[in-house]
């Protein structure tokens, strides 16, 4: 009987530790690897790092060409250094078969070939302008020409040499012009890292395993997204695990009141009863945690491949076996089980002999004063988190507040559920007539706490499914509407297979870049001087700040600020205007010509076309662009990010629904298995086996309905707060999206498993009631 009573906790810990061990194994394996482009580098010197709350992977502050040359000279003189190379990269994308090649979007100076040990298989290194070394498998011979897109547009380049690697190299003189800012100096040979640090103070020196930090920003970003996915899965699983254990433990204590009362009657102290419950939880947690950890480690390689295919991990990701994730899973099993059972153990220790016998049939007080206090406090906390979303400008903070809000509301709904059960039962079963309706109604009313405990997994499942899906739908629509409002044009020119638009097709489009203010990087945009909002930017040293940045820096109109551009040069800019946050497209506005001068690789994100007829589809395609209507632009501007978000959403919904549904089945199985005496009474009262099973099925459906209503209500309140925050953040009309298909799927899954977990054991229990199974 002990195993049956603890089945819900066993299932919760099993799957909770499986997800925990799985995610921790994947996280431990998600280590950056040294890119092939730096295979020969033994020590790397990176320019000073910067911080920004917007981008977790900002580019470091670059050195100017003059500063980089001096650093190279210093490092070359060190003992053990074979070569010191200033690595220069810039936007260059070849066009193959009339389309931009998406696999290669950067070129480097020929000197950087030493950092990868790249050598030519034919031809010679590039020595002058518009000479380029390309991969030999592209089918272009030495002396042939290839079209290459740079920031100014397409041009014909002459192939001087062929490589085995998928990389592009140009002459060092051309690289110095197109990639003037230097962020990395690579060293080959066997230099002493400590000597390097002394020579270049303030720089980041990487060596050994630290060279993995040289991975491309795209790979680092993908790896970071994968870590967010895995962390969210682990957090959601831990929360659901403790939640389900707490609800199933409460149900177990409720069902075993007579047993605990008898123990108290035979002399057991409250402490002994409490330790009994904790000891049982420890045993269940240890066994389930061991099995769950093994399951998680076995599944990790398969899930790792899924993450790579989905785009949450780079191609270099490989799953390995690590000691600490397995140890964490083994320890988490008993810890989570004890944590979830602690409140139930405290309740069990307070049961007295006479009280247990008196409460065996009817609950006198399903809601205590402490329960009311905790439930109302959590409900107020959830509402406060929803209101707080109106006061934040950060998307990350908004998401965190919304998630904390829904968690608080879920727990609040669970704690307050016994108070809501009588009213909900009366509303749901009021139309029910006859003996079956009466049995179901009275059974739920006399056991409000039991009903609330069995409904808790349904509440959790529906709440998370509705909130996660609804939040993603609402935010996707909100930012799409915001892009439509900003475009204000019938058609938009957007990149097609390229990271941005070149000047050849978007010569007047805003040009994004980064400015460095000491250790802070700030988003800036270069505007065409002919634009109304840029009329004050005719002077090369003029800049416009938005209100938020001006307030943060405590500067005003007429002040001057020293900034570092993308080419590493430092200049002093004068503030000519303070713009409203709602009208400024970035924190800092500059003249477009100034941005192009200092950032040769800057590309435009999009260009609204108010005439709608330019350029032609053929011209746009050859230059890596295409014309779309505003609705398509709004929908596809963040298509890849939206795809990842939806996969992330489905993973979280899958974890929450799967976890909750299994908990529903096991909880109802526990509740039904203990009710053989009830079935005997029904049979003695004249009910047929079919009527008994219909009563059981009706009670299960009632539990699912109550849990779905409470969970849906908690999710909708949290969604309201999230929607209000998005409306305030985007300045657009945002409608709250209710994910009906997801909600119906979650409720349907819970209902099917609830019926299976209650009707099947009830049917089996009819054999043991001591009466024949045929109709009376």
UniProtKB/TrEMBL annotation:
UniProt xrefs under Pfam families: FtsX
Where do transmembrane segments lie in this chain? 229-253, 281-303, 323-345, 372-392, 398-429, 450-470, 644-671, 692-720, 740-760
Write the protein's name. Answer: ABC3 transporter permease C-terminal domain-containing protein
Q: Which keywords does UniProt give here?
A: Cell membrane, Membrane, Transmembrane, Transmembrane helix
Q: Where in the cell is it found?
A: Cell membrane
Membrane-topology annotation of the record:
Multi-pass membrane protein
Any one of the GO CC terms: plasma membrane
Q: What is the lineage of its organism?
A: Bacteria, Bacillati, Actinomycetota, Actinomycetes, Micromonosporales
Task: List the source organism.
Answer: Paractinoplanes ferrugineus
Q: Which domain of life is it from?
A: Bacteria
Primary localization class, coarse:
membrane
ABC3 transporter permease C-terminal domain ranges (all copies): 232-353, 652-764
């Amino acid at each position: 009987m002990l195993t049956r009573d603890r089945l819900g906790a066993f299932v919760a810990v099993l799957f909770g530790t499986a997800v925990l061990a799985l995610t921790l194994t994947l996280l431990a394996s998600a280590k950056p690897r040294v890119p092939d482009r730096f295979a020969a580098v033994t020590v790397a010197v990176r320019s000073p790092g910067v911080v920004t709350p917007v981008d977790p992977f900002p580019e470091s502050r670059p050195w100017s060409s003059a500063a980089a040359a001096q650093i190279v000279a210093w490092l070359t003189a060190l003992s053990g250094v074979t070569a010191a190379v200033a690595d220069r990269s810039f936007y260059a994308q070849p066009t193959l078969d009339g389309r931009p090649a998406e696999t290669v979007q950067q070129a480097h100076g020929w000197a950087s070939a030493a950092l990868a040990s790249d050598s030519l298989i034919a031809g010679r290194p590039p020595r002058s302008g518009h000479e380029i070394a390309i991969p030999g498998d592209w089918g272009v011979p030495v002396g042939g020409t290839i079209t290459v897109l740079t920031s100014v547009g397409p041009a014909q380049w002459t192939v001087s040499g062929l490589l085995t690697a998928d990389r592009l190299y140009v002459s060092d003189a051309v690289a110095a012009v197109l990639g003037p800012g230097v962020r990395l100096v690579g060293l080959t040979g066997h230099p002493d890292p400590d000597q390097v640090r002394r020579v270049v103070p303030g720089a980041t020196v990487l060596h050994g395993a630290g060279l993995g930090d040289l991975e491309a920003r795209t790979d680092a970003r993908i790896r970071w997204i994968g870590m967010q996915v895995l962390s969210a899965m682990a957090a959601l699983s831990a929360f659901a695990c403790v939640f389900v254990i707490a609800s199933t433990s409460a149900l177990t204590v409720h069902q075993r009141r007579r047993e605990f009362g008898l123990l108290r009657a035979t002399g057991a102290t409250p402490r002994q009863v409490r330790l009994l419950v904790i000891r049982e939880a420890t045993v269940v947690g240890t066994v389930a945690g061991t099995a769950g950890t093994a399951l998680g480690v076995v599944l990790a390689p398969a899930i790792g491949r899924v993450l790579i295919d989905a785009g949450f991990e780079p191609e270099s990701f490989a799953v390995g076996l690590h000691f600490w994730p397995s140890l964490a899973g083994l320890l988490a099993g008993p810890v989570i089980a004890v944590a979830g059972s602690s409140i139930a153990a405290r309740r069990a220790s307070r049961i007295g002999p006479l009280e247990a016998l008196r409460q065996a049939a009817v609950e006198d007080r399903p809601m205590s004063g402490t329960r009311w206090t905790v439930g109302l406090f959590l409900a107020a906390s959830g509402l406060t988190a929803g209101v707080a979303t109106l006061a934040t400008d950060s998307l990350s903070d908004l998401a965190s507040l919304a998630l904390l809000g829904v968690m608080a509301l879920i727990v609040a709904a669970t704690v307050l559920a016994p108070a809501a059960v009588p009213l909900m039962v009366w509303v749901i079963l009021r139309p029910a007539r006859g003996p079956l309706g009466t049995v179901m109604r009275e059974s739920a009313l006399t056991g409000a706490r039991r009903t609330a405990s069995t409904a808790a997994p349904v509440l959790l499942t529906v709440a998370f499914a509705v909130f996660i899906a609804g939040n993603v739908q609402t935010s996707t629509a909100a930012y799409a509407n915001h892009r439509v409002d900003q475009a204000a044009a019938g058609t938009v020119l957007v990149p097609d297979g390229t990271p941005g638009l070149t000047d050849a097709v978007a010569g007047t489009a805003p040009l994004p870049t980064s400015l460095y203010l000491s250790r802070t990087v700030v988003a800036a945009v270069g505007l065409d001087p002919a634009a109304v909002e840029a009329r004050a930017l005719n002077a090369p040293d003029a800049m416009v700040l938005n209100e938020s940045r001006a307030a943060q820096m405590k500067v005003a109109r007429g002040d001057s600020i020293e900034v570092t551009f993308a080419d590493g040069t430092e200049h002093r800019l004068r503030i000519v205007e303070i713009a409203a946050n709602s009208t400024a497209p970035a924190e800092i506005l500059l003249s477009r010509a100034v941005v192009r001068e200092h950032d040769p690789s800057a590309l435009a994100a999009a260009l609204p076309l108010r005439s709608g007829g330019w350029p032609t589809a053929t011209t746009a395609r050859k230059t890596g662009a295409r014309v779309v209507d505003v609705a398509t632009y709004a929908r596809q501007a963040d298509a890849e990010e939206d795809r990842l978000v939806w996969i992330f959403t489905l993973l979280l919904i899958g974890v929450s629904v799967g976890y909750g549904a299994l908990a529903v089945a096991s909880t109802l199985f526990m509740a039904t298995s203990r009710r053989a005496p009830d079935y005997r009474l029904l049979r003695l009262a004249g009910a047929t086996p079919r009527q008994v099973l219909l009563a059981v099925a009706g009670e299960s459906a009632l539990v699912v309905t109550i849990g779905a209503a409470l969970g849906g209500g908690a999710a909708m309140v949290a969604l309201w707060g999230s929607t209000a925050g998005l409306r305030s953040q985007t300045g657009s009309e945002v409608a709250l999206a209710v994910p009906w298909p997801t909600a119906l799927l979650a409720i349907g899954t819970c209902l099917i498993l609830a019926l299976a977990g209650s009707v099947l054991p009830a049917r089996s229990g009819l054999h043991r009631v001591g009466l024949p199974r045929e109709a009376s």
